[in-house]
Amino acid sequence: MEGALSFAVETAQNAFKAAKEAPTWAKAALAAAALMALREAYLSATEKSVEGEVCLITGAGSGIGRMLAKSMAAGGAKVALLDINEAAAKEAAAEIAASGGHAFAARCDVTSHEDVAVAVAAAREALGSDITILVNNAGVVSGKPLLETSDRAIKRTFDVNVIAHYWTLKECLPSMVRNNHGHVVTVASAAGWVGIPRQCDYSASKWAANGLAEALRMELRHMGATGVSTTCVCPFYIDTGMFEGVRGSWLPTLPILKPDYVVASMMTAIRRRTPVLNMPAMVNLTPLMRAGLPVAAFDWCCDFLGITKSMDDFAGRSIDAPGSS
Ligand SMILES: NC(=O)c1ccc[n+]([C@@H]2O[C@H](COP(=O)([O-])OP(=O)(O)OC[C@H]3O[C@@H](n4cnc5c(N)ncnc54)[C@H](O)[C@@H]3O)[C@@H](O)[C@H]2O)c1
């Protein structure tokens, strides 16, 4: 024991001596690494649990919403799964119930405030409590050049991707504010930081969702609702089928994301009350690049990284496809 202790002290003294004698750049790197380790330790020590929370997720019948519902239930939350595709939502809820979780599912077209009000009331009744975590996840994409996009698709994109958030907020936020306890998660997109060809409607709707999340965070802060957190999620393309056919960047740090990575990161961000989650980390550079570079240089970076052409072979779930929602 004594030997181990003196070995540890000697190692620490040697490391300290080596650090003292290191060149300035190495000292700076060491200090940054130490700060990041401290930050990580603090964040993981202050993580909240989702156990006992009541989480409502829109668009929970497939993709990210469905997987997040399962993760929430596995963490001990009761889950309300809303989707315009009733069969998919019910199937996901049955899977959660079969593995011991507590879930409720309902058909809800989030573009209708009336539908949302009815579904939220039914969820409250079925789960026995107010909603404490709201995840605005339902989303649609048309994926066409602006001049080929129907009027209906443009309106639908805004209705689902951003206007619907107001309806769910109006139904779920009052009890969160009253109890000073809750969390609002906005699933926006990295397309809410940068404009992409064939996304004139989608990108704009996600910029709007970003703006709503930002203003809401500031408003809650201003009114002293310190117990209500917000998380705005901005992922690059995810391999869920919604954006089938898109090309990721050639850059290894900007790949098409795996859904399980996205959902695990979202769970961590919710537990840590992270206000903005950009995925992958490289997306954090976008606002900095926008601010620091002339527009032409920023556009050239998008070309160079392959972003500009990323939608050229889009074959995803277009709302302009016959029979779509
Ligand atoms: N897949 C990606 O590459 C990607 C990237 C960034 C952000 N996002 C965002 O993530 C979210 C989830 O996307 P996903 O990849 O899981 O897609 P997805 O198509 O698998 O899931 C979207 C769900 O929303 C539902 N929905 C559509 N319109 C609805 C309506 N009017 N009312 C209720 N539900 C409705 C659909 O039925 C579907 O179950 C979306 O907001 C999307 O914009 C996706």
Percent of residues in beta strands? 5-15%
Low-pLDDT segments, ≥5 res: none
**Spatial order of the strands forming the largest sheet:** 3-2-1-4-5-6-7
- Average pLDDT confidence is 93
Helix-and-strand structural type:
alpha/beta
The separation of the N and C termini measures 68 Å
Which series of helices and strands comes N to C?
HHEHEHEHEHEHEHEHH
User: Which overall shape is indicated by the principal axes computed on the Cα atoms?
Assistant: globular
The total number of structural domains is 1
Subcellular location: Membrane
Membrane topology: Multi-pass membrane protein
Keywords: Lipid metabolism, Membrane, NADP, Oxidoreductase, Transmembrane, Transmembrane helix
Pfam family, one: adh_short
Polypeptide structure, described:
The structure is a single chain. This protein has 325 residues and is α/β, with parallel strands linked by helices. It has a single domain (49-305), classed as NAD(P)-binding Rossmann-like Domain (Rossmann fold). It is 51% helix and 12% strand. The chain contains ten helices and seven strands. The protein has helices at 2-21, 24-45, 63-74, 86-98, 113-127, 151-179, 200-222, 259-271, 285-292, 295-305; strands at 54-58, 78-83, 102-107, 133-136, 182-187, 228-235, 276-279. Helix 8 links the parallel strand 6 and strand 7. Helix 3 runs parallel beside helix 4 (86-98). The longest helix has 29 residues, at 151-179. The radius of gyration is 22 Å and the shape is globular. The termini are far apart. Bound molecules: nicotinamide-adenine-dinucleotide (NAD). Residues 58-59, 61-65, 83-85, 88, 108-111, 137-140, 160, 187, 189, 235, 237-238, 240, 242-243, 317, 325 line the site of nicotinamide-adenine-dinucleotide.
